[in-house]
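Private note to self, pasted from the team thread so I don't lose it. Backbone tokens:
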């Protein structure tokens, strides 16, 4: 987990944790260069949006497969 650091020093560790978690859940994820807490929030929102889009694509693909069967 995150250890207590001077202000701003924990961002690199948090960035690594986010990247590892993203790799575990989705093998193909855009990695965003994070420089501040605001960019972390923006990156999380962008990732959430991309995950939603991927899920919608998967649902459409499954529906198309079912229609073809």
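Design output:
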């Amino acid at each position: 987990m995150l250890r207590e650091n001077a202000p701003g020093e924990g961002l690199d560790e948090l960035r690594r944790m986010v990247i590892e978690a993203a790799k575990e859940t989705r093998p193909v994820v855009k990695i965003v260069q994070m420089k501040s807490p605001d960019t972390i929030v923006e990156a999380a929102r962008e990732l959430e949006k991309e995950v939603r889009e991927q899920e919608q694509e998967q649902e459409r693909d499954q529906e198309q497969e079912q229609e073809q069967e």
